[in-house]
Amino acid sequence: MQASDYGKRLLTFAVIADSHLNQDEWDCNSPFPVNKLANRRMRHVVRDLNRRDVAFVVHLGDLIHPVPAVKDLYAGAARRFHAQVRELKAPLYLTPGNHDIGDKPMPWAPAGSITEDYIRLWRETFGADYYSFDHQDIHMVVINSQLLNSGLPAEAEQKLWLEADLQAHADRRIFICTHYPPFLYERNEAEHYDNIAEPERAWLLDLTARYGVEGLFGGHVHNFWYLSEKGTRHYLLPSTAFVRQDYSEMFQAPPALEATEAGRDDAAKLGYFLVHVHERGHLCEMVRTWGACVAPDVPASSGPELLEPVAPARNRYAALGFDLRRSWARGVDIPPSGALDEFDRKRVRNDYPLLALWEMGVRHLRIPLQDLRDAATRQRMRDLLPLGHAFTLYSYGLPAPCDQKLILDNAALLARWEISFRGQEMKRLAAGLRELRQKLTLPVLLSRMWEHEDNRAPDGRYYHVMNHGFTMKDADSIAGMAEFEGLEGTGLVFRAMSHDDLRSLTAFAHETCAARGLPASLHLRLTGFNPAEVMRNDAWVAQRTAEALFCAADRGVTVFADTLTDIDRGYFVHNGVLDSTCNPRRAARVIGHLHAALNRGDGPMSPVETSEARGRWLWTRQGGETIALYMAGENPANAPLALPPEIFPAAAPVTVINLDNGRICPAAELRPAAAPDLYFLRAAH
């Protein structure tokens, strides 16, 4: 139940980017239909921010869509922007973007570069283009990134100011806000439309390292990336208005051509950030807006009470992790599109799975030995450890001596090591482990490869597939492992197939390993036995992962679901918790809300019990409270929830959380629909 110690939360501020407001509600000078929604989408963001407790809001630029060269449209869009943000309750700080003040200097740019006239127009319309301010113990710095490499007099002025400002506040926690990010993939990448060119990129990055800048927030790219450079965390933010569709090349499948305008209106990727500043570090939360729009004449409303998500680093009940089967740390080349880049490819990494892991509160990630062999992936692991992620390595048998040395040298990156084996190899494996564990402090877990007869489905049919992990039938085999010297203190990996009872199997894993102080993993298959069967049941995946998490929470068993992103071709075609463009499916939302719901309580959890009453109930004690996972069955139309008295006595007030949307309400107000609704309930006892 441990979580990284970030300390008490001190404050929260919001960061938004690329709102691209138009000169009129439906009048737009872009050829893309989705751009006409920008004003309505920004209006929703303002209303949403007003429902939250934020100290201030920073906008990273591209406030408006018309560029300075089109002065009448620019002025109209600016008026619209000022009118909308006038409703914002929190103080607002603005960063100039290339649509607001001109592009960075580049001869191939499709629009005009920054000029002294454009700087003057920005200052007259929006205020200072670079400045800093303080809030409590943090120092916020806003720069005009378009000035860098421009040769304009204002560039030298900004450089002198920034160096002096950072030096004067070197004892503070510093955050920098910029429109153009320094880089998208690696520090020494070539210049392209979306990054800051040399030599000023190196100058800026050297400053952030010298003064220990804690975080840097960049816009412009309309997509999410997380990078780390010499101790500074870089966050590149999505837009509130539309997605840059050239980056859709990152994904394993194309976006829906008509429904999303070839990716530009991929609404699941729109949103903004909340930055939670703690005593020791900060954590970012993505607020997805899903493209929500608010018309000008719609009055503001308070909205329902919503569950606050829990970050991986703060998750005390992080029992559910994922097997990272796809490449997750390597770059993808984005071809030149002829729109914004034409002369080279841009390399990026698909960080949307990482964003989803943050939203779900997932800490535990399972990786193959292949990942540890790769230097870039090892560095990515180092970057993610401070965010609370923990890596479990897996291999078949003991690897070659060079790989054993690699594991020993990089043990600090790993939380555990799973080794699969066949029964006839047990003696040799034990001897090898006996020698290796004289130098290895990493916990080791063993996983039995299934034999021919094990791979029969419940109907008796055999399938030519690979499975591994112990089952409840293996109690005698597990007991027999004690006779092998070298296996003392090793944990075990268990296997949960689609038909297995998760409550019983988790209890078996706990009693066999965790109750004796040994590590235990449970591999959760999100498909059936038959590799030719297509499984697209989002409701089943959501219920299965929720049940596994609830049963394993605080029981010393780490569950690894085998599918993060859809498998849309090959064997075992089935849905994961993210679709093929890495947008959250229902299960991702349920997992995030269930992790957050568990963290609203505290204390040890007792074994899970089960009941049937208009659906299935899993329930347990958490500290001084009763908690339950309710998987709704058939209920009379508009009937109140019937609480089983053996779980919730009549006198106890019960709070309910809808795990699909995170809404919180008293149980008396709940009118559950038919299956497959999922709810979390809590009451004192």
UniProtKB/TrEMBL annotation:
Transmembrane feature ranges: none
Database matches in InterPro entries: Calcineurin-like_PHP, Metallo-depent_PP-like, STPP_CPPED1
Domain Calcineurin-like phosphoesterase: 12-223
One Pfam family hit: Metallophos
Molecular functions per Gene Ontology: hydrolase activity
Protein name from the UniProt record: Serine/threonine protein phosphatase
